[in-house]
Amino acid sequence: MMKEVPYRELVKILRANGAVKIRAVGSHETWRVGKCQTVVPHHAMVSPGALLDSGPPGAVSWEGLVGAMTKRCNYAVDVEREPGWWIVRVPDLDDLTTQARRLADVEHNAREAIAAWLDVDLDTIEVSPVIHPPEDVVADLHRSKEMLDEAAAKQKEAAVLAGMAIHRLIDDLGLTLREAGRVVGLSHQRVAQLAGASPSSRPKPDRPHREGDPANAGRRLGPAPRAQGWEGEGGAPSTSKKRSSA
Fold first, then answer.
1. What is the CATH architecture of 5-70?
2. Mean pLDDT on 216-220
3. Do 207 and 215 form a contact (C-beta atoms < 8 A)?
4. Fold held by 73-132
5. Which sign does the torsion angle of CA 130, 133, 139, 140 carry?
6. What CA–CA distance (Å, rounded) separates 143 from 30?
7. Which among 36, 28, 33, 40 has a CA at the least distance from the CA of 57?
8. pTM of the full structure
9. How far is the CA of 201 from the CAs of 90, 163, 169, 174, 176, in angstroms?
């Protein structure tokens, strides 16, 4: 047999679970929980027989109300920073407010405040903190993201423009990647990257040396041929002699 519950405690449980008192007639009150409703006698102690399962369709049973006493309730809490303190508010409980020195203490302090307000066991309370940064901080971060996006777009546009310039050297003037790199003061690897950033055409590889090729005029592709009879660095004469065959 279920024990009696103090009226005051029962009312806290009802309100904590979203119940609303819709009318009161004499010593009886009608409470609505969602689409369900039940009649609660306004006595110091409420007995199990006062709430009957045989009530109107959708009536809240006594077992349901007692079950609400033992279930864990989760409350959303708003958390804001003020100099020296974290301010914690519970919107579902008339903006019940508490505070904490450290962010790590917010949940515990909020649970303690809610449990004390509802006069229930601390273990039946859970909280879901929602941290609200200052509006000026949010505005600055939003502007910073916009600037980063703009800079990224400008950087991409600049790479395409540089690639078009490289292609004019390669395609229109017939320069190789290495030649184009010397003209603009970049490595041929970087020149190839810039050329690849432009969709106008594909970069041309270095052409092999061919006699009579205008692009290779005056270009030395390898070391100068050594004079016969000379070896080593600095042009030192060779002292080796050909051995006579036996």
1. 2-Layer Sandwich (3.30)
2. 46
3. yes
4. Double Stranded RNA Binding Domain (3.30.160)
5. negative
6. 53
7. 36
8. 0.42
9. 63, 10, 12, 13, 14
